Structure formats: structure tokens, C-alpha cells
Amino acid sequence: MKRLLTYILLGTLMISTSCSKFDEINTNPETPSVVKPSMLATRIILNLARQSSTKSFMQPYMLTKEIAWTELTEGYQYNSLGEWDISMTSINDAHFMGEFATDEQLKSSYNGLMYFARATKFYEATMSVGDIPYNDALKGESDKIYFPKYDTQKDVFLGILNELELADKLFAEGAKFDGDPIFGGDVTKWRKLVNSFALNVLIQLSKKENDGELHIKERFKTILANKPIFGSNADNFQVIHEDKASQTYPFYKISNSFVIYPVVSTEIIDRLKQYQDRRLFYYANPSALQIKNGKQSNDFNAYVGIDPSLSFSEIAELKKKNDYSKLNDRYTELVSGEPTQQYSYAHLCFVIAEAAARGWVAESTVDWYKKGIEASMQFIAENTPNTAQYTHNMPLDAAYINAALNVYGNEFPPMLEEQLEEIITQKYLASYLQGRMTPYYDYRRTGYPKWKINPASSLNAVAPDKIPVRWRYPALEYNYNAENLNEAMQRQYKGNDEINQLMWILK
Question: How far apart (Å, rounded) are the C-alpha atoms in residues 454 and 466?
């Protein structure tokens, strides 16, 4: 019996020692065993700030008519919209940032980031399809709500605006935090972003400016007068690229077989030529045929766009003639390209200019309009090597910018509708390969810029003479949350989940 007990004790000791050594050998010392809020913050911020790469990077700019694609017929270029993923998986653990924080100030900062991330993702979803789950969303783990009800778009926007207010308040109470690859944890810069983005949300609600519950004009005035907002390009919410894995410019030529397909559209080139605006020489390369025929690269007439509304066969024939403008080399040849913006100071300036034109705030419309153009030009100049390859000897220097601003200011129209067209058009030109969907949102809200529509090439089967105004709900919602989705569909579109149906924000 004693011998048996000894064997048992020895066996237990051996198992214990063996397990200890197994755990030691199979534990990666470089892998953290405890999740830190900074780790979650980095992932969430990059998800909000980064754009897709290679062909996917270009797809939003097909929808916004900035480029024509010459590989195959692309749905976005020809006004066909599919489904939009409204899932919130990228922020389903954002609340843990505050829970894991080590003190109250850091908790405020991380919770401020959580509310901003929520507001941004809900904004993207509702702007795409209309009504979405909001109050019941992201409550599967906490409240066991697996089939969330859909809220009206108005209630979603009320929630978004309230969460942005809360984000600003929490950042104001917070302290510098770790895990921020964009602003280095600077809470003042985050407050500027939150409030600037709130102004963007409010301008997208322009058709509801007299709604008694939203208080759009009052909110706009309060933020502009009392809260920190972007003050220069140094505040841009953008990703700066460099020669490191997964950090290069999204359309850089290495491992990118799609560089041969995009051409600059007439929607961009013709407007810049009309204004004799030197941003043309930074956005595009001259037509090879025009250079062969004797024109110089600093001649506006050497730049030829392709109308993206032409049929694909017509575009293919034009490309064979070699009389078109490719992207400027800086988008494909430079590993750093230019920073990619999700929201910029230039964008904000045009938002304030529009609000001033509408009479929401007592600001100079033309001054904010000129500030937006100036910020756009300065951003391009500061992020482009000053060599002929990229500037075509037409530099955006201080002397040119000042002269251009005087011309733009002197030609600014006196009447509201013409002012809105100029503001939105310049906002569009400043958004070239930047900001993703914003020009599309502005177009469907205002009708500007006046993009060409070709019914003969349109893939919008129901209304070929129109650009669609929404995406369809994803199939997953029909499969797993059909009862709630169908209720929302009846409420909004009489059950017709179709891309030309007007959502509440556009009525």
C-alpha cells in the first residue's frame, strides 16, 4: 500500500512538472496574455481610418465619377449598387476599452473613442440603406438580443448626434491615451475630429433643417461657436503611408496589377480646365497622343479625360487611340503616395461654407469657400515632390494659390443655388481619390456636381436616367432577421428593397 501511494505521488508530481514545462514551452513571450485597451484602440482606429487597396481602393471613385475603369464593366461606374454590409463586428468589443482602462481619465478617453466609433459606423450604415438596428444593436452578448429591431433613420441620427456630443464631453474629461496611430492619443485633436464630423453629419441633414426635434441649425451654431474643430490640414483624419508592410499607399504599383486600368474622368479634368486650376497637373498625366502631337505637359489642353458614362466598348475604343490622361505618377510610383483622408480640414471648410450660404450661421460664405480651396491646394503641394514628373512644371506655390483664390473669390456667385453648386463642386474637386463616399452623398442630396448620366450605358434598370440613391439590405438580414427587416421595409419603401427608393434623409 505504501509502495502504491509512492507511485501515485510520483505520478502526480511528474504530471504536474510535465504540465508546467508544457505551459512554459508553449507560451509565446511576445504574445500578451491580457488584452490592453490600447490594443483594441489601435485596431478600431485603423478600421475607421484606413482605405482599401489596389482595385478596391478605386471603386468608390468609380461611383463618384472621378475615374473611368478600362478593364471590364464596373457596376459602380455604371450606376449599379448591390448590398451593403450593415454588421457592426468591427466595434463589437469597443466597450472593453473603457472597462480595461487603469484610471478614470483614461476610461473617459477610451469611452470617447468608443462613442465616436459607434457614431461613425452607424452613420455609414444608415447613409447606405436607410433604417437600421440601433437601440438593439450590439446587445447580443450583454442582453441576448440576437434579432435586433430596426429604428427609424431619424431616431438613428438623433442617436448619432447624441453619441458625438458624449464623445466630445468624454474626450474633454480624458487624458492622452495609448494605441492611437493617427493623433498619438491627443484628446484635443480627437475633440476636433468629433466636432468636425458632427458638422458633416448635420449638413447631410440639410433637407431636415426645420425639424423641431433634430435642432440642426442650433446644433451647428453651438459647435462652431463653442467647441474645438479642425483648424488646418494638420488636423486631418488621415493615414500617412510609408515603405513598410501593409503601410504603403493603397494604389502603389508594387503587387498592384490594376495600375493600368484607371483613367481620369472628364468630370474632373473638364472642370479643372474650365477653372484653369493647377490641381489638374497633380491629379493627372498628359495624354500621350497630345504630347506626341507637340503639346507640352504644362499645357491644359494636353490633358484629356474620358467620360465615365460612355459604354465600355466606347471607352475601350478611345483608349486604343492613346488620347487620355492616366493618373499622375505620384499615385502609382511613390510608395508613400499622399495621406489618405477620411475627413479633412478642406472638407470641413466647404461644410461651413454651405451652412453659411443656407443661413445657418453668421459666417462669410465666400471666405470659407476660399479656405476650402486653399486647404486642398496646400495639402496637395505639401505631399507631392516638387519635380517635373509630379507637378509638370506647374507648381502649386504660394503665389499661384493666392492668385487662384482671388479669382475664385471674385467669381463666386451671389445667388444661393449657384453658391451651393460652386461649393459642392469645389468640395468634389478637393476630394479627388479622398474621402470615399462623401461626394456621392452630396450629389444625391443636392444634385451637385451635375454628373453626366447616359441611359444607354446605365445598369440602373428601373431608372436608367438616374443615379441610384441607396444600397440594398444584405442577404444575411433576410436570412436571420427577416421579421424585423420586413417591418422596416414596409415602413420606408412599401416593402420594395430597391436602389432608387428614397430614404427619410432625402425626402
Answer: 9
